[in-house]
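Hi all, long-time lurker, first post. I run a small reading group and we've been trying to get comfortable going from sequence to structure in the token notation. Rather than ask abstract questions, I figured I'd post a concrete chain and ask someone more experienced to write out its structure so we can walk through it together at our next meeting. Sequence below, copied exactly:
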Amino acid sequence: MTFEIIPAHHVVFAEQADIFTRAFAGYVAGSFAMDAETLARFVFHQGIDICHSRFLRTAQGLVGFGYINRTGNVSRLAAMGVVPEARREGSARQLLLHLLEETRARGDQAMILEVIEQNPAAHELYRREGFREIARLLSWRRKPAPVPDSPETLEEISLTTASQLPATLEFPGLPWQISRHAVAKVASGRAFRTRNALVVIGDPEIEFVRVHALSTLSSDATDWPAMRAALAAILRRYPDREFFAPALFPSIFGEKIFQPLGFAGDPLTQALMRYDLEKP
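-- Answer (accepted) --
Happy to help. Here is the structure in token form:
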């Protein structure tokens, strides 16, 4: 089969949305019904660079896509998909290898991605092509329940300020979506700090409140008790809300923060994977 790589900026958003919807129909994490507007929001919140993203075309037409987020000299494969009728013909591998070659040609240090572990075909593709796992990412959920008192006092700050604070854990060791780079893009987000920790959450006025980021405000060591106390203070402030943390937090966050605060694990898990690139 002949493959042709098309720059994403040559494809109108409505057509991109159609390919995205078809590629993720029946997906293990849920289908995504995209139109041009919802895709534009996805691109914004994922920090996707359309200039580095690509579509795959065969004689059947457009059959796949790879969206790239580039931060410094690290590229991230923010999303990749192939429509069902073009699978098992080498389409995904061809697109992945092309994206890796372009990343290498830019002089980038590495490519990062997250892949759902319940999608073994994709997981195996990345592993086979040289990606290595650097963290296991788990999801957590907590129903309203009492929280022990804590001496921590919350100070609300702007998302801009939150995105500029130092942190011990950072991208690419953490997924981009829970790093400072994503904080400023959180829709209706709220940021709170304590003496030594930062918590960013979604809109607390809705029924299910998302935990977007947790970090220690230090350049020396990760202060897990401070982060746990800061999140506990958030839970006390909104006692009638259910909180959830998507499968973007490395497993140590569960051990040190979420489980002690009464969060239960959700079934969905991901692997954070990295491909180190040699300079061209």
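A couple of things your group might point at:
The two ends are 28 Å apart (CA to CA).
The first helix runs from residue 13 to 23.
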